[in-house]
Structure formats: structure tokens, C-alpha cells
Amino acid sequence: MKIYAAHPKKRSRQAALRAIEQQLANGISFDHLLERTQAFAASPRGQNPPKGGPDYRKDPERWYRDACYDDDPALWEQPNGDNGQQTQSEQTAIQRE
Prior knowledge:
single chain; mainly alpha; 47% helix; 0% strand
């Protein structure tokens, strides 16, 4: 399927295809899923991690099942391999706001 092929991580193909079919059956349009998958794949978060680094991309099955295609694209601007954890001082500053 074209949508699965656009996802940057290739794992659990059959489970991913079932999750995609479920989203389509729930009324999410093919074009929307494809567009958002392509946008994620092109984003820094969708890229392969630095050599030897951790890969924080969800497997495609979870990505579709959890409707991650509707996440704020700003979240995808953080490079893969960076888990986005904040330091204690950053967490404190956010809590004060």
C-alpha cells in the first residue's frame, strides 16, 4: 500500500496495514493519511537516527493506530535520536509560567 510505503520505518508490515485500514474505515481519508505520512517522513524526526543512536520513531502500526499522523508537525522538527527530555531547570521554568 502506498501509505505504508511512505512511512520511513519499515517494520510489522501486516500489522501496519491493518492499522491503516482501520483508520480508513473510521473515516480518515486516504489523501490525509498519505500527506501526513509523507510530511513525517520528510521531517527531522522521520529521518534515520545518527549512526549508532537510538531510533525514537514509532513502528508504523503504532503510529497509525495511535493517530500520530495528527500530531502537531512542530513535534516532528526535533531530530530523531533526541528523545526530547527536558532538563530539570527547563521543567521548573515551564511550571512557573
